[in-house]
Amino acid sequence: MAEWEPVLLANVHRPNSEKIGTYLAHGGYQALRKALSMSPEAVVAEVKASGLRGRGGAGFPTGVKWGFLPPDAPVKYLAVNTDEGEPGTFKDRLIVERDPHAILEGVIIAAYAIGAHRAFVYIRGEFFLGVKRWIKAIADAYQHGFLGKDILGSGFDLDVSVHRGAGAYICGEETAMLESLEGKRGQPRLKPPYPAQVGLWGRPTIVQNVETLANVPHIILRGAAWYASIGTEQSKGPKIFCVSGHVNRPGNYELPLGTPLREIIEKYAGGVRYGRHIKAVIPGGVSTPMLTARQIDVPMAFETLAAAGSALGTGAVIVMDETTDMVEVARRITDFFVHESCGACVPCRLGGFRMLERLEAIARGRGRPDDLAKLESLARGISGLTFCPLGTGMCEPVLSGLALYRDEFVARLNTAAKR
Amino acid sequence: MTMDAARQTPHAPGAGLVDPTKQAMLLSALYLAQEQAGYLTPAAIERVAQRLGLSPGQVYSVASFYSLFRIEPVGRYVIQVCKGLSCYLCGGAEKVADYISAKLGIRPGETTPDGRITLELVECLASCGTAPAMRINDQLYENLTLDAIDLALERLLEGGEHG
Hints:
The structure holds two protein chains of two kinds.
Chain A: H1 20-25, H2 30-37, H3 40-50, H4 62-67, E1 77-82, H5 91-98, H6 100-114, E2 118-123, H7 128-143, E3 159-164, H8 174-181, E4 205-209, H9 210-222, H10 224-228, E5 238-245, E6 251-256, H11 261-268, E7 278-282, E8 291-292, H12 302-307, E9 316-321, H13 326-340, H14 346-363, H15 371-380, H16 390-404, H17 406-412
Parallel strand pairs in A: 1-2, 1-4, 2-3, 5-9
Antiparallel strand pairs in A: 5-6, 7-8, 7-9
Helix pairs in contact in A: 2-6, 2-9, 3-6, 5-6, 5-7, 6-9, 13-14, 13-16, 14-15, 14-16, 15-16
Chain B: H1 3-7, H2 26-37, H3 42-52, H4 56-63, E1 77-82, H5 85-89, H6 94-104, E2 117-122, E3 134-136, E4 139-141, H7 146-157
Parallel strand pairs in B: 1-2
Antiparallel strand pairs in B: 1-3, 3-4
């Protein structure tokens, strides 16, 4: 396969890439002009035909989601998810800081397609530079007539505002994000109804991740057929893979979906550091099940990772070499989820805490002989039984760690301990 | 009312709403209030509640949910060391925090006796590709080395400005 020429990350390394002038000089806002010359229905149809699926983790087909909006609703909203917090993931921060107009152009096209006249950008509170870059990009877009009343003479109006989160991973979950935008505790809502039916202040709302929106201008400009020619059967287009951990060249690599995990690690991220070998890889952020060194020929696509027993998630690849303490990895990830549990439902709040207690005991060499069975039983009582996906995500690293590296856990148990 | 019913937005789409509501300003208001004293004093919570037509309990409930809102005083400089998996794999996290602890004589969660510097271990800072990472106020430090930590701490102890 020919070397992939980056599309989503084409601008980020240019000097002053965040400035509107730089963006315009490299073809910026051409897609918006083209979209505004199309009917909103045609834009939705184009995105649907492209096969674009959400890049925030769930992988839902974007155009299909847009089609779920009730056509007769008087007010509709677009909410933009910049609440990147899944450990291992650092792609959205890069785009927001270095190429905010690429997302904003996607925002305007998406709003036009779905008939929203207000868009709310929700950004992680810790992203100080990202907040500044979002605000500046929006202000400059107003100046250039890309936002506000009668955008580029099309008769379409759109206002965009930026809202800072305040340090809660759960607000990356779309309904928790809506609660937070409404000024409440970020606790997920029950689905259904989905936000496309009942969202912000009860209005039909489309929630999209920033990487998803950054794909939209390219689909409009180059066409759905071009986009659908990239990737695999069920996973279309380019994807930003965030590679971190024990590799020589950690970083963000944009490649077509379906690129083998091995190629991403060895060719792009420069292989494992110090000539060591892979022990485990987390393919899609810490809520996705781990893979062993024997599984890394898997193509990085939604369907192939699901078949391998894991998930594409956010495309955050965390590589661990043979020196890695897998008990500590499970403990650390569980500690994260316990801290980030919103506390609303019992399996996640209490079950997570109990799993962490057992993992901490095992890590300190004080685990009891039946602790592994106990962990599995706790995970069975959490996974799939919680209000939102956080509880299930919490169990994946523990269950996959136990399944794949059981010997390491067993070796740490204190066999002399009594119940 | 069941929990499920309570969680759902109580109004039907388009039922004569005025949106966004005043409460949507709560997080922004709390950020502004926090700038005054470095944390949310009871008086600040009371004031925010009054201005937005909420009860102090509602405001406290929201403020206490989010880790960036502080109910207790913190130092003028807050050092936040990332304890994410990638930072841990790259020799950061507790190793960085321990190094700073030894230099400053405070453990994570504590503030120096002069009230200037607070040390914390925090969740992923989305700097996994440039791990290990830490933050001092709004300045992010990536690809940390012991020398880089020393330099940042020296600037703090000499009263240099951060963020």
